[in-house]
């Protein structure tokens, strides 16, 4: 009986996801598949989880994610000026965040939809700490980004922030 119920539940969930994707397809820039349960990163605390949601959706305060209000804004990274400030650039390659990255982001090498990061609690905690320490994706009115290295004085000192609150969902719940 249990196996029949489990099989039915699985089929219903698959059908629901299939219809969701069919009736309400995500925009082409959003590469993450729909899910019926909360993503594990949603347990990282509302503020940090919100930053992650926004950056994954390319609708964030990063310079390469312009809004409808500023469609022609400069997409260059305001911290290094070397390339557009995308999610991948901000997390994985921005040289102005290198100090914090080498200290805090060990093991995080991909932020794409298939990255191990999205199902690894240790990696998600590292990402949350990195985002908090570097104010990545924060509203500029809250925490202005550091000036580029070419504009002295440049400091790698992290802004003062409350420690991130971790309440990560168990993978068994997902
Ligand atoms: Zn940069």
Estimated structural class: mainly alpha
Global morphology: globular
Q: What's the end-to-end separation, in Å?
A: 23 Å
Task: Give the quaternary arrangement of the chains.
Answer: single chain
What is the strand tally? 0
What integer value in Å does the Rg equal?
Answer: 18 Å
Number of domains: 2
Cofactors, ions, other ligands: zinc ion
Sequence of secondary-structure elements: HHHHH
Q: What is the mean pLDDT? A: 84
Largest sheet: none
* Total helical elements: 5
Low-confidence stretches: 148-156
**What share of the residues does DSSP label as strand, in percent?**
under 5%
Helical content class: 25-40%
Structure in words:
With 174 residues, the protein is mostly helical. The protein folds into 2 domains: 1-36; 39-173, no CATH class. The protein contains 5 helices and no strands. It has helices at 2-23, 46-56, 87-93, 98-104, 121-134. The radius of gyration is 18 Å and the shape is globular. Mean pLDDT is 84; it is low at 148-156. The protein binds zinc ion.
